[in-house]
Amino acid sequence: MAKNDKRAPAHLLGVDLGGTKILAAVVDREGNLLAEAKRSTKSEQGQQAVIDRIVAAAGEAVASAQLDMGQVAAVGIGAPAPVDVATGTVYNAPNLVGWDQVPLGRLLRDALDLPVHVDNDVNVGTLAEHVLGAGRGTRHMVGIFVGTGVGGGLILDGRLHRGFRYAAGEIGHMVMSADGPLCGCGRPGCLEAYASRTAIEREVRAGLEMGRPSILPQLMAQSGKSRLTSGLIAKALAADDELMGSVISQVQRYLGLLVGSLVNLLDPEMIVFGGGVVEALGDPFLEPIGRVARERYLQQRDADRVRIVAAQLGDHAGVLGAAILAGQQSGIAFSPGAPT
Amino acid sequence: MAKNDKRAPAHLLGVDLGGTKILAAVVDREGNLLAEAKRSTKSEQGQQAVIDRIVAAAGEAVASAQLDMGQVAAVGIGAPAPVDVATGTVYNAPNLVGWDQVPLGRLLRDALDLPVHVDNDVNVGTLAEHVLGAGRGTRHMVGIFVGTGVGGGLILDGRLHRGFRYAAGEIGHMVMSADGPLCGCGRPGCLEAYASRTAIEREVRAGLEMGRPSILPQLMAQSGKSRLTSGLIAKALAADDELMGSVISQVQRYLGLLVGSLVNLLDPEMIVFGGGVVEALGDPFLEPIGRVARERYLQQRDADRVRIVAAQLGDHAGVLGAAILAGQQSGIAFSPGAPT
Questions:
Q1: Which of A164, A194, A305, B136 is the most exposed place for a label (fewest CB within 10 A)?
Q2: Over the stretch A196-252, which tens digit does the pLDDT of each residue have?
Q3: Optimal mutation site among B122, B156, B174, interface A, most CBs of chain A within 10 A
Q4: Residues 6 or more apart whose Cβ sits within 8 Å of residue B245
Q5: From the list B163, B295, B301, which residue is nearest A266 (CB)?
Q6: Hey, are the CB atoms on A152 and B265 less than 8 Å from each other?
Q7: What is the SS3 assignment for B272?
Q8: Binary contact (B171, A253; C-beta < 8 A)
Q9: The complex's ipTM?
Q10: Do A301 and B157 touch (CB under 8 A)?
């Protein structure tokens, strides 16, 4: 290595801005995560306080990587909201108090004196799985993230498909039934109203109220949690809880129908499932989804080649994807190697 | 113009292979249709007879344009079946007797001694609307064609999105309800089972059997037709037939929900509706679709900019799109002007 390589801005900084925490990480051009740092978001303390904590996390990550900011080429950040990628403006963010039309790109650029690129957190996670995770080498890939809600991202022709208003990928709000249960968005029958952790909790509570036997009340009391977490869902399934089993079967059925629709529409080579529910339940959760989906493929030729797989990057998808975004938007060549 | 321009292969030949007829047309590089010719398909007479009639129609179109085959740069053809675009192979074509795995590209290349490019007829029609019709200048556009079935095509990032098995665009087989009416494909709840002419006829017949009053039996007897045509649907609506009105309202509702899902997933700037039903009913058919769709958009910002419009090219979309395909696949620059 030439001596001056150390001073060249060869690294990328990825930031994952969440409703509860901020993660920042330094990533090299091969996709290796060199160091990371964490802060609480505490958006109720105001926008400037959040910006300050992003800057602090970024500084700490760069310092732990034994670098200085001059060695960072660009910053990427994923925000839990619709984002105008061209301007870096964050629109109505449901989990960030008072965040609507926030010029996050400009604010961070001023604070860090570096190029900053902003995108939606699910897009950024999808990008990470495509470049460094389960979807490496695919040309058309769909990311589906099942947690409190259901998020989605599309890689088409090797690139993130954002749509003309930067509003694409809202898989959770595809219609699964004209008269289905009410979704958090206020409309009936969205996929999210059938297949999110919120939907699972609603169905479990309805079952308990109808007097169906279940170990869930006992598990929830033991854990001291008032909400149904992905971990508790996994525990109930592991204990062969019949109520949870039947609720999850319905979730798998709807996710299978969704995948069937997506394959008929987009014909991707891979569907990557991630998010808290999928991480907790693992590969066995995906098998019935694939079975239902495959029955819906209009084109049965080469149906085996459509792969349905679990995401690989877990909690790191956000910072890695943000770093990849920073590289792509800055025109920096990024050559993925094996993550360390 | 230089003298030798007349002999340069500056023209494109587009062929629309349908279940009942073959259309061939000569198109110049500005998208002007110079001449066309027609033959019956009569696929029951065997593959070679169909190939011969395609060649005859092509020859007649070229002759009517006062050109010879040496002035044709390439041939494009749209087939009513899944097509492997890389090899020009036509897979199981429901409306062409005995057509499965037919190397149409190679057969026509041998017969015409010209480069031949094959694609699915709906893809080709979508391409035409994008380059010469309603979708001119758009970057992301969805074509939805409502006839006996419901076909679809996707223009994403300015280009036809075909998918990795060339199976994309099957909008008619997106799931609208897990337990809906049976589709022609054998599965329950596909969009096509709610929103095609086949579905309209099924619902109208069910209404008549239940004794609902309607002028349709009278209209059908007058026309001497045993099937419900798009023209009869239009006549019944024009006469304020209550049964037809309620059936069409349901169709519009499902098409609206579909558009809502497509906008949430792909965020296109335009949805182009074509096909026999849409041509017969015109713009008034689209307005309620737009109303239902818009209520489903998760992203309401700039919702006005998502346009839902009628296709412009009608029956010519097939030959024009095939000619455009020929140009694109041959790397020939194509500069659309105003069609003559």
A1: A305
A2: 999 999 999 999 999 999 999 999 999 998 889 999 999 999 999 999 999 999 999
A3: B174
A4: B237
A5: B163
A6: yes
A7: strand
A8: no
A9: 0.95
A10: no
The token pair that represents A206 in the structure block: 């309805």
> Tokens for B27?
């198109």
The two three-digit tokens of residue A330, written as one number: 């800055």
Instruction: Report whether A47 contacts A38 (CB < 8 A).
Output: no
**Using one digit for the tens of pLDDT, what is the confidence trace for A205-216?**
999 999 999 999
The span from the CA of A130 to the CA of A152, in Å, is 13
- Residue listed under structure tokens 């500005």: B30
Please, where are the H alpha helices in B210-316?
216-223, 230-238, 242-266, 276-281, 283-296
The residue type found at B17 is: L
Which residues are registered as beta bridge partners of B74? Answer: B12
Question: DSSP class of residue B259?
Answer: H
Please indicate whether, in this complex, the C-beta atoms of B265 and A159 are within 8 angstroms of each other.
no
CA distances from B305 to A164, A165, B294, B301 (A): 9, 9, 11, 9
**Gap between the Cα atoms of A126 and A322, Å rounded:** 10
Q: What are phi and psi of B153, to 5 degrees?
A: -145, 150
Match 């690294």 to its residue by tokens. A11
- With the C-alpha atoms ordered A238, A244, A246, A249, is the resulting torsion angle positive or negative? negative
Nearest one of B120, B78, B80 to B99, comparing CA atoms: B80
Rounded Cα distance between B127 and B324, Å, is 7
